[in-house]
Write a structure and sequence with these properties.
4 copies of one chain form a homotetramer.
Chain A: H1 3-15, E1 28-34, E2 39-43, H2 56-66, E3 74-81, H3 91-100, E4 106-111, E5 116-120, H4 121-124, H5 131-138
Parallel strand pairs in A: 3-4
Antiparallel strand pairs in A: 1-2, 1-3, 4-5
Protein backbone atom coordinates (compact mmCIF):
# COMPACT_ATOMS: atom_id res chain seq x y z
CA UNK A 1 0.00 0.00 0.00
CA UNK A 2 1.09 3.56 -0.64
CA UNK A 3 0.93 6.25 2.03
CA UNK A 4 -2.67 7.35 1.36
CA UNK A 5 -3.86 3.73 1.34
CA UNK A 6 -2.02 2.96 4.58
CA UNK A 7 -3.69 5.92 6.23
CA UNK A 8 -7.15 4.74 5.10
CA UNK A 9 -6.32 1.18 6.23
CA UNK A 10 -5.40 2.37 9.74
CA UNK A 11 -8.55 4.51 9.95
CA UNK A 12 -10.83 1.69 8.82
CA UNK A 13 -9.20 -0.99 10.99
CA UNK A 14 -9.53 1.15 14.10
CA UNK A 15 -13.16 1.84 13.16
CA UNK A 16 -14.24 -1.85 13.06
CA UNK A 17 -15.13 -1.59 16.77
CA UNK A 18 -18.07 0.74 15.92
CA UNK A 19 -19.75 -1.84 13.67
CA UNK A 20 -23.34 -2.65 14.70
CA UNK A 21 -23.60 -6.31 13.71
CA UNK A 22 -25.47 -8.29 16.39
CA UNK A 23 -27.12 -10.56 13.80
CA UNK A 24 -24.17 -11.66 11.62
CA UNK A 25 -21.35 -10.95 14.12
CA UNK A 26 -19.49 -9.84 10.99
CA UNK A 27 -17.73 -6.50 11.39
CA UNK A 28 -16.94 -4.38 8.34
CA UNK A 29 -15.50 -0.87 8.09
CA UNK A 30 -14.64 1.54 5.29
CA UNK A 31 -12.69 4.76 4.84
CA UNK A 32 -12.55 7.10 1.86
CA UNK A 33 -10.36 10.02 0.83
CA UNK A 34 -11.48 12.96 -1.30
CA UNK A 35 -9.43 14.87 -3.84
CA UNK A 36 -8.78 17.60 -1.27
CA UNK A 37 -7.51 15.01 1.22
CA UNK A 38 -10.50 14.86 3.56
CA UNK A 39 -11.41 11.44 4.99
CA UNK A 40 -14.74 9.85 5.93
CA UNK A 41 -15.39 6.49 7.59
CA UNK A 42 -18.23 3.97 7.73
CA UNK A 43 -19.31 0.74 9.44
CA UNK A 44 -21.96 -1.86 8.69
CA UNK A 45 -25.24 -1.22 10.55
CA UNK A 46 -27.58 -4.21 10.75
CA UNK A 47 -31.28 -4.47 11.55
CA UNK A 48 -33.52 -7.21 12.97
CA UNK A 49 -35.29 -6.99 9.60
CA UNK A 50 -32.23 -7.92 7.55
CA UNK A 51 -33.33 -5.91 4.50
CA UNK A 52 -32.83 -2.62 6.36
CA UNK A 53 -29.12 -3.32 6.90
CA UNK A 54 -26.64 -0.73 5.62
CA UNK A 55 -23.10 -1.70 4.61
CA UNK A 56 -19.90 0.07 5.70
CA UNK A 57 -19.07 1.43 2.25
CA UNK A 58 -22.48 3.04 1.91
CA UNK A 59 -22.28 4.51 5.41
CA UNK A 60 -18.97 6.16 4.45
CA UNK A 61 -20.32 7.54 1.15
CA UNK A 62 -23.55 8.77 2.78
CA UNK A 63 -21.41 10.46 5.42
CA UNK A 64 -19.47 12.28 2.71
CA UNK A 65 -22.63 13.44 0.89
CA UNK A 66 -24.25 14.44 4.17
CA UNK A 67 -21.23 16.62 4.96
CA UNK A 68 -21.76 18.54 1.70
CA UNK A 69 -18.90 16.61 0.11
CA UNK A 70 -20.29 16.34 -3.43
CA UNK A 71 -18.08 19.14 -4.89
CA UNK A 72 -14.97 17.40 -3.48
CA UNK A 73 -14.95 14.02 -5.31
CA UNK A 74 -14.00 10.68 -3.76
CA UNK A 75 -10.54 9.65 -4.94
CA UNK A 76 -10.30 6.27 -3.24
CA UNK A 77 -12.37 4.04 -1.01
CA UNK A 78 -10.96 1.29 1.22
CA UNK A 79 -12.95 -1.56 2.80
CA UNK A 80 -11.85 -3.97 5.54
CA UNK A 81 -13.43 -7.15 6.89
CA UNK A 82 -12.33 -9.97 9.13
CA UNK A 83 -12.32 -12.34 6.17
CA UNK A 84 -9.97 -15.03 4.80
CA UNK A 85 -9.41 -12.96 1.65
CA UNK A 86 -9.70 -9.23 0.99
CA UNK A 87 -13.38 -8.45 1.52
CA UNK A 88 -15.74 -8.09 -1.46
CA UNK A 89 -18.19 -5.18 -1.67
CA UNK A 90 -21.81 -6.26 -2.26
CA UNK A 91 -23.69 -5.25 -5.38
CA UNK A 92 -25.76 -2.60 -3.61
CA UNK A 93 -22.57 -0.80 -2.56
CA UNK A 94 -21.12 -1.14 -6.07
CA UNK A 95 -24.28 0.58 -7.35
CA UNK A 96 -23.83 3.48 -4.92
CA UNK A 97 -20.14 3.71 -5.92
CA UNK A 98 -21.23 3.99 -9.55
CA UNK A 99 -23.52 6.89 -8.64
CA UNK A 100 -20.88 8.89 -6.80
CA UNK A 101 -17.41 7.81 -7.94
CA UNK A 102 -15.72 8.15 -11.33
CA UNK A 103 -15.37 4.84 -13.22
CA UNK A 104 -11.59 4.92 -12.94
CA UNK A 105 -11.46 5.75 -9.22
CA UNK A 106 -9.84 3.24 -6.90
CA UNK A 107 -11.42 0.78 -4.50
CA UNK A 108 -9.02 -1.07 -2.19
CA UNK A 109 -10.31 -4.32 -0.69
CA UNK A 110 -8.47 -5.51 2.43
CA UNK A 111 -8.70 -7.89 5.38
CA UNK A 112 -7.49 -7.63 8.96
CA UNK A 113 -4.30 -9.52 8.05
CA UNK A 114 -3.34 -6.64 5.75
CA UNK A 115 -3.83 -8.49 2.47
CA UNK A 116 -5.26 -6.22 -0.22
CA UNK A 117 -6.31 -5.99 -3.85
CA UNK A 118 -7.11 -2.92 -5.98
CA UNK A 119 -10.07 -2.51 -8.33
CA UNK A 120 -11.52 0.42 -10.20
CA UNK A 121 -15.23 1.16 -9.83
CA UNK A 122 -15.68 0.20 -13.48
CA UNK A 123 -14.08 -3.20 -12.86
CA UNK A 124 -16.40 -3.84 -9.90
CA UNK A 125 -19.57 -2.85 -11.77
CA UNK A 126 -18.94 -2.88 -15.53
CA UNK A 127 -21.60 -1.55 -17.94
CA UNK A 128 -23.35 0.19 -15.06
CA UNK A 129 -26.81 1.73 -14.95
CA UNK A 130 -26.83 5.52 -15.16
CA UNK A 131 -29.04 8.55 -14.82
CA UNK A 132 -29.02 8.75 -18.61
CA UNK A 133 -30.60 5.29 -18.91
CA UNK A 134 -33.47 6.31 -16.68
CA UNK A 135 -34.05 9.51 -18.67
CA UNK A 136 -34.00 7.63 -21.95
CA UNK A 137 -36.54 5.17 -20.64
CA UNK A 138 -38.84 7.74 -19.09
CA UNK A 139 -38.98 10.01 -22.14
CA UNK A 140 -40.35 7.36 -24.45
CA UNK B 1 -41.70 23.74 19.75
CA UNK B 2 -39.57 23.79 22.86
CA UNK B 3 -35.95 24.96 22.83
CA UNK B 4 -34.41 21.58 21.93
CA UNK B 5 -36.93 21.08 19.13
CA UNK B 6 -36.31 24.59 17.78
CA UNK B 7 -32.59 23.91 17.68
CA UNK B 8 -33.12 20.65 15.76
CA UNK B 9 -35.55 22.41 13.40
CA UNK B 10 -32.99 25.12 12.58
CA UNK B 11 -30.26 22.51 12.04
CA UNK B 12 -32.41 20.36 9.77
CA UNK B 13 -33.83 23.29 7.75
CA UNK B 14 -30.35 24.65 7.05
CA UNK B 15 -29.24 21.15 6.04
CA UNK B 16 -31.89 20.69 3.29
CA UNK B 17 -29.42 22.19 0.80
CA UNK B 18 -27.18 19.10 1.10
CA UNK B 19 -29.93 16.71 -0.05
CA UNK B 20 -28.94 14.62 -3.08
CA UNK B 21 -32.28 14.26 -4.85
CA UNK B 22 -31.84 14.65 -8.62
CA UNK B 23 -34.55 12.06 -9.39
CA UNK B 24 -37.46 13.20 -7.18
CA UNK B 25 -36.36 16.84 -6.67
CA UNK B 26 -37.75 16.27 -3.19
CA UNK B 27 -35.43 17.50 -0.42
CA UNK B 28 -35.65 16.01 3.05
CA UNK B 29 -33.43 16.56 6.09
CA UNK B 30 -33.32 15.26 9.66
CA UNK B 31 -31.60 16.13 12.92
CA UNK B 32 -31.41 14.16 16.16
CA UNK B 33 -30.31 14.90 19.70
CA UNK B 34 -28.84 12.37 22.11
CA UNK B 35 -29.31 12.22 25.87
CA UNK B 36 -25.96 13.95 26.37
CA UNK B 37 -27.03 16.77 24.02
CA UNK B 38 -24.99 15.84 20.95
CA UNK B 39 -26.65 16.42 17.56
CA UNK B 40 -26.40 14.56 14.23
CA UNK B 41 -27.98 15.45 10.89
CA UNK B 42 -29.02 13.62 7.75
CA UNK B 43 -30.32 14.20 4.21
CA UNK B 44 -31.99 11.97 1.66
CA UNK B 45 -29.51 10.45 -0.83
CA UNK B 46 -31.06 9.09 -4.02
CA UNK B 47 -29.75 6.67 -6.65
CA UNK B 48 -30.47 6.12 -10.35
CA UNK B 49 -31.60 2.67 -9.21
CA UNK B 50 -34.35 3.94 -6.91
CA UNK B 51 -34.10 0.99 -4.51
CA UNK B 52 -30.64 2.12 -3.35
CA UNK B 53 -32.00 5.45 -2.08
CA UNK B 54 -31.38 6.29 1.58
CA UNK B 55 -33.74 8.58 3.51
CA UNK B 56 -32.70 11.55 5.69
CA UNK B 57 -33.75 9.95 8.98
CA UNK B 58 -31.67 6.88 8.29
CA UNK B 59 -28.67 8.98 7.25
CA UNK B 60 -28.86 10.79 10.61
CA UNK B 61 -29.17 7.57 12.64
CA UNK B 62 -26.37 5.87 10.66
CA UNK B 63 -24.23 8.94 11.31
CA UNK B 64 -24.83 8.60 15.04
CA UNK B 65 -23.99 4.87 15.09
CA UNK B 66 -20.94 5.46 12.92
CA UNK B 67 -19.68 8.04 15.39
CA UNK B 68 -19.76 5.43 18.17
CA UNK B 69 -22.99 6.94 19.48
CA UNK B 70 -24.72 3.73 20.64
CA UNK B 71 -23.96 4.26 24.39
CA UNK B 72 -25.49 7.77 24.18
CA UNK B 73 -29.15 7.08 23.22
CA UNK B 74 -31.21 9.18 20.82
CA UNK B 75 -33.69 11.30 22.74
CA UNK B 76 -35.50 12.94 19.85
CA UNK B 77 -35.43 12.93 16.07
CA UNK B 78 -36.81 15.74 13.88
CA UNK B 79 -37.61 15.46 10.15
CA UNK B 80 -38.34 18.27 7.69
CA UNK B 81 -39.63 18.23 4.13
CA UNK B 82 -40.98 20.79 1.73
CA UNK B 83 -44.46 19.30 2.02
CA UNK B 84 -48.00 20.64 2.47
CA UNK B 85 -48.27 18.95 5.86
CA UNK B 86 -45.59 17.87 8.35
CA UNK B 87 -43.59 15.19 6.52
CA UNK B 88 -44.24 11.50 7.19
CA UNK B 89 -41.33 9.08 7.74
CA UNK B 90 -41.43 6.01 5.46
CA UNK B 91 -41.78 2.51 6.89
CA UNK B 92 -38.13 1.63 6.33
CA UNK B 93 -37.09 4.56 8.53
CA UNK B 94 -39.68 3.62 11.16
CA UNK B 95 -38.10 0.15 11.25
CA UNK B 96 -34.62 1.63 11.82
CA UNK B 97 -36.06 3.90 14.53
CA UNK B 98 -37.50 0.81 16.25
CA UNK B 99 -34.03 -0.80 16.21
CA UNK B 100 -32.24 2.15 17.76
CA UNK B 101 -34.73 4.33 19.66
CA UNK B 102 -36.80 3.55 22.76
CA UNK B 103 -40.54 3.06 22.06
CA UNK B 104 -41.45 6.21 23.99
CA UNK B 105 -38.81 8.46 22.41
CA UNK B 106 -40.00 11.45 20.41
CA UNK B 107 -40.16 11.96 16.65
CA UNK B 108 -41.07 15.48 15.48
CA UNK B 109 -42.44 15.77 11.96
CA UNK B 110 -42.22 19.24 10.41
CA UNK B 111 -42.43 21.13 7.13
CA UNK B 112 -40.65 24.24 5.86
CA UNK B 113 -43.57 26.42 6.98
CA UNK B 114 -42.82 25.42 10.59
CA UNK B 115 -45.92 23.28 11.13
CA UNK B 116 -45.18 20.26 13.26
CA UNK B 117 -46.64 17.19 14.95
CA UNK B 118 -45.15 14.92 17.61
CA UNK B 119 -45.22 11.11 17.63
CA UNK B 120 -43.51 8.46 19.72
CA UNK B 121 -41.63 5.69 17.94
CA UNK B 122 -44.22 3.23 19.24
CA UNK B 123 -47.04 5.29 17.70
CA UNK B 124 -45.26 5.34 14.33
CA UNK B 125 -44.55 1.60 14.29
CA UNK B 126 -46.81 -0.18 16.80
CA UNK B 127 -46.29 -3.90 17.58
CA UNK B 128 -42.85 -3.74 16.00
CA UNK B 129 -40.55 -6.60 15.00
CA UNK B 130 -37.69 -7.17 17.42
CA UNK B 131 -34.46 -9.06 17.86
CA UNK B 132 -36.37 -11.37 20.21
CA UNK B 133 -38.77 -12.39 17.43
CA UNK B 134 -35.89 -13.43 15.20
CA UNK B 135 -34.30 -15.45 18.00
CA UNK B 136 -37.58 -17.18 18.78
CA UNK B 137 -38.08 -18.11 15.16
CA UNK B 138 -34.55 -19.31 14.55
CA UNK B 139 -34.33 -21.50 17.64
CA UNK B 140 -37.27 -23.69 16.70
CA UNK C 1 -60.45 -16.92 12.09
CA UNK C 2 -63.20 -16.76 9.54
CA UNK C 3 -63.26 -18.98 6.45
CA UNK C 4 -61.18 -16.68 4.22
CA UNK C 5 -58.58 -16.21 6.96
CA UNK C 6 -58.39 -19.95 7.60
CA UNK C 7 -57.78 -20.56 3.92
CA UNK C 8 -54.95 -17.98 3.84
CA UNK C 9 -53.51 -19.46 7.05
CA UNK C 10 -53.38 -22.96 5.55
CA UNK C 11 -51.81 -21.63 2.33
CA UNK C 12 -49.15 -19.64 4.19
CA UNK C 13 -48.30 -22.39 6.70
CA UNK C 14 -47.80 -24.92 3.92
CA UNK C 15 -45.62 -22.39 2.08
CA UNK C 16 -43.10 -21.90 4.95
CA UNK C 17 -41.03 -24.76 3.49
CA UNK C 18 -40.13 -22.59 0.45
CA UNK C 19 -38.50 -19.87 2.59
CA UNK C 20 -34.89 -19.14 1.61
CA UNK C 21 -33.39 -18.24 4.99
CA UNK C 22 -29.91 -19.80 5.35
CA UNK C 23 -28.60 -16.80 7.33
CA UNK C 24 -31.28 -16.27 10.00
CA UNK C 25 -32.85 -19.79 9.89
CA UNK C 26 -36.07 -17.84 10.41
CA UNK C 27 -38.87 -18.93 8.07
CA UNK C 28 -41.68 -16.54 7.23
CA UNK C 29 -44.56 -16.90 4.74
CA UNK C 30 -47.48 -14.75 3.64
CA UNK C 31 -50.69 -15.17 1.66
CA UNK C 32 -53.08 -12.55 0.35
CA UNK C 33 -56.57 -12.56 -1.11
CA UNK C 34 -57.91 -10.09 -3.65
CA UNK C 35 -61.44 -8.75 -3.93
CA UNK C 36 -62.20 -11.25 -6.69
CA UNK C 37 -60.98 -14.11 -4.46
CA UNK C 38 -57.60 -14.79 -6.09
CA UNK C 39 -54.75 -15.73 -3.76
CA UNK C 40 -51.00 -15.05 -3.91
CA UNK C 41 -48.26 -16.30 -1.59
CA UNK C 42 -44.79 -15.18 -0.54
CA UNK C 43 -41.74 -16.29 1.48
CA UNK C 44 -38.76 -14.45 2.89
CA UNK C 45 -35.72 -14.56 0.58
CA UNK C 46 -32.41 -13.73 2.24
CA UNK C 47 -29.04 -12.71 0.81
CA UNK C 48 -25.43 -13.02 1.99
CA UNK C 49 -25.48 -9.20 1.89
CA UNK C 50 -28.29 -8.83 4.43
CA UNK C 51 -29.57 -5.56 2.92
CA UNK C 52 -30.75 -7.37 -0.23
CA UNK C 53 -33.13 -9.59 1.75
CA UNK C 54 -36.81 -9.53 0.76
CA UNK C 55 -39.57 -10.31 3.27
CA UNK C 56 -42.48 -12.71 2.74
CA UNK C 57 -45.15 -10.01 2.68
CA UNK C 58 -43.35 -8.09 -0.02
CA UNK C 59 -42.78 -11.23 -2.07
CA UNK C 60 -46.55 -11.88 -2.00
CA UNK C 61 -47.45 -8.30 -2.96
CA UNK C 62 -44.80 -8.21 -5.74
CA UNK C 63 -46.22 -11.50 -7.01
CA UNK C 64 -49.69 -9.95 -7.21
CA UNK C 65 -48.46 -6.83 -9.05
CA UNK C 66 -46.34 -8.97 -11.37
CA UNK C 67 -49.41 -11.01 -12.29
CA UNK C 68 -51.19 -7.84 -13.43
CA UNK C 69 -53.18 -7.79 -10.19
CA UNK C 70 -53.39 -4.02 -9.69
CA UNK C 71 -57.01 -3.68 -10.92
CA UNK C 72 -58.08 -6.42 -8.46
CA UNK C 73 -57.27 -4.90 -5.03
CA UNK C 74 -55.85 -6.81 -2.07
CA UNK C 75 -58.58 -7.39 0.52
CA UNK C 76 -56.53 -9.10 3.20
CA UNK C 77 -52.95 -10.18 3.82
CA UNK C 78 -51.90 -12.89 6.30
CA UNK C 79 -48.38 -13.42 7.64
CA UNK C 80 -47.03 -16.41 9.56
CA UNK C 81 -43.75 -16.95 11.42
CA UNK C 82 -42.45 -19.54 13.83
CA UNK C 83 -42.53 -16.98 16.65
CA UNK C 84 -43.68 -16.94 20.28
CA UNK C 85 -46.35 -14.36 19.45
CA UNK C 86 -48.12 -13.55 16.17
CA UNK C 87 -45.36 -12.27 13.87
CA UNK C 88 -44.86 -8.53 13.32
CA UNK C 89 -44.35 -7.13 9.80
CA UNK C 90 -41.24 -4.96 9.45
CA UNK C 91 -41.46 -1.29 8.55
CA UNK C 92 -40.36 -1.82 4.95
CA UNK C 93 -43.28 -4.19 4.39
CA UNK C 94 -45.68 -1.77 6.10
CA UNK C 95 -44.50 0.88 3.62
CA UNK C 96 -45.22 -1.41 0.65
CA UNK C 97 -48.64 -2.24 2.16
CA UNK C 98 -49.37 1.50 2.34
CA UNK C 99 -48.53 1.83 -1.36
CA UNK C 100 -50.80 -0.98 -2.52
CA UNK C 101 -53.50 -1.60 0.09
CA UNK C 102 -56.34 0.64 1.28
CA UNK C 103 -55.85 2.07 4.80
CA UNK C 104 -58.74 0.05 6.19
CA UNK C 105 -57.76 -3.26 4.61
CA UNK C 106 -56.94 -6.14 6.93
CA UNK C 107 -53.58 -7.61 7.90
CA UNK C 108 -53.70 -10.82 9.96
CA UNK C 109 -50.57 -11.64 11.96
CA UNK C 110 -50.22 -15.27 13.01
CA UNK C 111 -47.75 -17.84 14.32
CA UNK C 112 -47.41 -21.58 13.75
CA UNK C 113 -49.44 -22.31 16.90
CA UNK C 114 -52.43 -20.62 15.26
CA UNK C 115 -52.51 -17.53 17.50
CA UNK C 116 -53.49 -14.45 15.55
CA UNK C 117 -54.21 -10.73 15.78
CA UNK C 118 -55.86 -8.41 13.25
CA UNK C 119 -54.66 -4.93 12.26
CA UNK C 120 -55.64 -2.51 9.53
CA UNK C 121 -52.89 -1.10 7.29
CA UNK C 122 -53.55 2.31 8.83
CA UNK C 123 -52.98 0.92 12.33
CA UNK C 124 -49.68 -0.64 11.28
CA UNK C 125 -48.38 2.51 9.57
CA UNK C 126 -50.37 5.55 10.76
CA UNK C 127 -49.86 8.95 9.08
CA UNK C 128 -48.12 7.25 6.17
CA UNK C 129 -46.06 8.82 3.38
CA UNK C 130 -47.91 9.10 0.08
CA UNK C 131 -47.43 9.88 -3.57
CA UNK C 132 -49.05 13.25 -2.84
CA UNK C 133 -46.32 14.16 -0.35
CA UNK C 134 -43.64 13.55 -2.94
CA UNK C 135 -45.48 15.65 -5.52
CA UNK C 136 -45.96 18.48 -3.05
CA UNK C 137 -42.30 18.45 -2.19
CA UNK C 138 -41.03 18.25 -5.75
CA UNK C 139 -43.22 21.02 -7.11
CA UNK C 140 -41.87 23.67 -4.78
CA UNK D 1 -30.63 -14.40 -30.32
CA UNK D 2 -31.10 -18.14 -30.23
CA UNK D 3 -34.50 -19.78 -29.81
CA UNK D 4 -34.52 -19.78 -25.99
CA UNK D 5 -33.44 -16.15 -25.89
CA UNK D 6 -36.08 -15.13 -28.41
CA UNK D 7 -38.75 -16.82 -26.32
CA UNK D 8 -37.59 -14.94 -23.17
CA UNK D 9 -37.43 -11.68 -25.16
CA UNK D 10 -41.04 -12.07 -26.31
CA UNK D 11 -42.20 -12.92 -22.79
CA UNK D 12 -40.41 -9.96 -21.22
CA UNK D 13 -41.46 -7.44 -23.90
CA UNK D 14 -45.12 -8.41 -23.55
CA UNK D 15 -44.76 -8.12 -19.77
CA UNK D 16 -43.58 -4.45 -19.76
CA UNK D 17 -47.22 -3.37 -19.52
CA UNK D 18 -47.41 -4.76 -15.95
CA UNK D 19 -44.61 -2.52 -14.67
CA UNK D 20 -45.61 -0.36 -11.69
CA UNK D 21 -43.52 2.76 -12.30
CA UNK D 22 -45.56 5.90 -11.56
CA UNK D 23 -42.52 7.77 -10.18
CA UNK D 24 -39.88 7.20 -12.88
CA UNK D 25 -42.22 6.34 -15.78
CA UNK D 26 -39.47 3.88 -16.67
CA UNK D 27 -40.77 0.40 -17.48
CA UNK D 28 -38.51 -2.63 -17.07
CA UNK D 29 -39.30 -6.33 -17.41
CA UNK D 30 -37.36 -9.57 -17.04
CA UNK D 31 -37.80 -13.24 -17.90
CA UNK D 32 -35.74 -16.24 -16.83
CA UNK D 33 -35.53 -19.87 -17.89
CA UNK D 34 -34.57 -22.75 -15.63
CA UNK D 35 -32.63 -25.87 -16.58
CA UNK D 36 -35.87 -27.83 -16.89
CA UNK D 37 -37.28 -25.18 -19.25
CA UNK D 38 -39.67 -23.44 -16.90
CA UNK D 39 -40.00 -19.65 -17.26
CA UNK D 40 -40.65 -16.87 -14.73
CA UNK D 41 -41.18 -13.16 -15.36
CA UNK D 42 -40.74 -9.93 -13.41
CA UNK D 43 -41.41 -6.19 -13.61
CA UNK D 44 -40.09 -3.20 -11.70
CA UNK D 45 -42.33 -2.20 -8.77
CA UNK D 46 -41.74 1.31 -7.43
CA UNK D 47 -42.71 2.96 -4.15
CA UNK D 48 -43.37 6.56 -3.06
CA UNK D 49 -40.42 5.99 -0.72
CA UNK D 50 -37.92 5.28 -3.50
CA UNK D 51 -35.79 2.95 -1.36
CA UNK D 52 -38.55 0.33 -1.25
CA UNK D 53 -38.53 -0.07 -5.03
CA UNK D 54 -37.95 -3.57 -6.41
CA UNK D 55 -36.39 -4.12 -9.85
CA UNK D 56 -37.72 -6.43 -12.57
CA UNK D 57 -34.83 -8.91 -12.34
CA UNK D 58 -35.31 -9.36 -8.62
CA UNK D 59 -39.07 -9.76 -9.03
CA UNK D 60 -38.42 -12.60 -11.51
CA UNK D 61 -35.86 -14.33 -9.26
CA UNK D 62 -38.08 -13.95 -6.17
CA UNK D 63 -40.94 -15.43 -8.19
CA UNK D 64 -38.82 -18.47 -9.02
CA UNK D 65 -37.71 -19.00 -5.38
CA UNK D 66 -41.28 -18.47 -4.17
CA UNK D 67 -42.48 -21.18 -6.55
CA UNK D 68 -40.07 -23.68 -4.91
CA UNK D 69 -37.71 -23.29 -7.86
CA UNK D 70 -34.38 -23.59 -6.00
CA UNK D 71 -33.72 -27.23 -7.04
CA UNK D 72 -34.23 -26.25 -10.71
CA UNK D 73 -31.41 -23.71 -11.34
CA UNK D 74 -31.73 -20.59 -13.46
CA UNK D 75 -30.00 -21.09 -16.79
CA UNK D 76 -30.48 -17.64 -18.28
CA UNK D 77 -32.05 -14.34 -17.35
CA UNK D 78 -33.14 -11.68 -19.85
CA UNK D 79 -33.87 -8.02 -19.05
CA UNK D 80 -35.59 -5.44 -21.26
CA UNK D 81 -35.94 -1.67 -20.89
CA UNK D 82 -37.06 1.13 -23.13
CA UNK D 83 -33.50 2.45 -23.27
CA UNK D 84 -31.16 3.74 -25.97
CA UNK D 85 -28.80 0.82 -25.38
CA UNK D 86 -29.41 -2.65 -23.95
CA UNK D 87 -30.47 -2.02 -20.34
CA UNK D 88 -27.99 -2.41 -17.49
CA UNK D 89 -28.92 -4.31 -14.32
CA UNK D 90 -28.33 -2.35 -11.11
CA UNK D 91 -25.86 -3.51 -8.48
CA UNK D 92 -28.56 -4.75 -6.10
CA UNK D 93 -29.87 -7.10 -8.80
CA UNK D 94 -26.33 -8.25 -9.63
CA UNK D 95 -25.93 -9.16 -5.95
CA UNK D 96 -29.13 -11.24 -5.99
CA UNK D 97 -27.96 -12.91 -9.23
CA UNK D 98 -24.71 -13.84 -7.47
CA UNK D 99 -26.71 -15.47 -4.65
CA UNK D 100 -28.87 -17.60 -6.92
CA UNK D 101 -27.15 -18.05 -10.30
CA UNK D 102 -23.92 -19.87 -11.17
CA UNK D 103 -21.03 -17.51 -12.08
CA UNK D 104 -21.00 -18.71 -15.68
CA UNK D 105 -24.77 -18.48 -16.24
CA UNK D 106 -26.01 -16.09 -18.89
CA UNK D 107 -27.63 -12.66 -18.52
CA UNK D 108 -28.99 -11.12 -21.72
CA UNK D 109 -29.47 -7.36 -21.69
CA UNK D 110 -31.87 -6.00 -24.31
CA UNK D 111 -33.90 -2.96 -25.30
CA UNK D 112 -37.26 -2.58 -27.01
CA UNK D 113 -35.52 -2.15 -30.40
CA UNK D 114 -34.20 -5.72 -30.06
CA UNK D 115 -30.55 -4.80 -29.53
CA UNK D 116 -28.87 -7.13 -27.08
CA UNK D 117 -25.62 -8.01 -25.35
CA UNK D 118 -24.68 -11.13 -23.36
CA UNK D 119 -22.84 -11.21 -20.01
CA UNK D 120 -22.13 -13.91 -17.49
CA UNK D 121 -23.03 -13.28 -13.86
CA UNK D 122 -19.32 -13.30 -13.04
CA UNK D 123 -18.68 -10.57 -15.62
CA UNK D 124 -21.45 -8.41 -14.14
CA UNK D 125 -20.28 -8.80 -10.54
CA UNK D 126 -16.66 -10.03 -10.46
CA UNK D 127 -15.04 -11.07 -7.15
CA UNK D 128 -18.47 -11.27 -5.54
CA UNK D 129 -19.35 -11.51 -1.85
CA UNK D 130 -20.37 -15.01 -0.76
CA UNK D 131 -21.87 -16.94 2.13
CA UNK D 132 -18.33 -18.22 2.84
CA UNK D 133 -17.08 -14.66 3.43
CA UNK D 134 -19.75 -14.05 6.01
CA UNK D 135 -18.97 -17.32 7.81
CA UNK D 136 -15.25 -16.53 7.82
CA UNK D 137 -15.89 -13.13 9.31
CA UNK D 138 -18.38 -14.26 11.93
CA UNK D 139 -16.28 -17.15 13.23
CA UNK D 140 -13.32 -15.01 14.18
Amino acid sequence: MNEAESRLFALAKEHLKDSYSPYSHFQVAAALMTESGKTYTGVNIENSSFGLTNCAERTAMFNWINDGGLPDPIEQLLIIGNTDRPISPCGACRQVMSEFMAPESEVILTDTKGEFVRYTVDELIPYHFTEKDIEDGANK
